Amino acid sequence: QVQLVESGGGLVQAGGSLRLSCTVSGRTSSSYVMGWFRQAPGTEREFVARITWSAGITYYADSVSGRFTISRDKAKTCVNLQMNSLKPEDTGIYYCAAASRGSSLTSSYNYWGQGTQVTVSS
Q: In terms of DSSP bridges, do strands 116-121 and 10-13 run parallel, antiparallel, or are they unpaired?
């Protein structure tokens, strides 16, 4: 089992920044891929970004590319999402997830955190 706990959400004005963190514990593997997803009310959960735990290879959704940065800290076993130039449409619950292979599909991720709320006001 892998446990994921997100933190760092909150309320911010458009154009502002937030940094989300996901603490990883349990039976982790260096082959894991860590992802961030988000879900706005009434919509499906969507992919935001992912990173390979071992090599740190990253991939972003077009909607956040150039504004968000995903990183991992092996020593602290956490995954971060730095979000800059935030827009109201970035509002939603942000989830951290772990998968055994690289994918942007929610169905590929076996482990999920409880989520953290991000609200961007206009």
A: parallel
**Which tokens go with 13?**
């004005």
Matching residue, tokens 């990883």:
24
pLDDT band at 30 (very low <50, low <70, confident <90, very high): confident
Query: How many Å apart are CA 17 and CA 85, to the nearest integer?
Result: 6
Burial of residue 46 (number of CB atoms within 10 Å: 0-12, 13-18, 19+): middle
DSSP alpha helix (H) spans, 7-70: none
C-beta of residue 14 within 8 angstroms of C-beta of residue 88? yes
Q: What is the DSSP secondary structure assignment for residue 85, as one 8-state letter?
A: S
48 within 8 A of 79, measured Cβ to Cβ:
no
Give the separation between CA 63 and CA 83, rounded to whole angstroms.
12
Question: What is Dmax (Cα atoms) for the chain?
Answer: 41
Mind listing the pLDDT tens digit for each residue in 39-72?
999 999 999 999 999 999 999 999 999 999 999 9
3-state class of 98 per DSSP?
strand
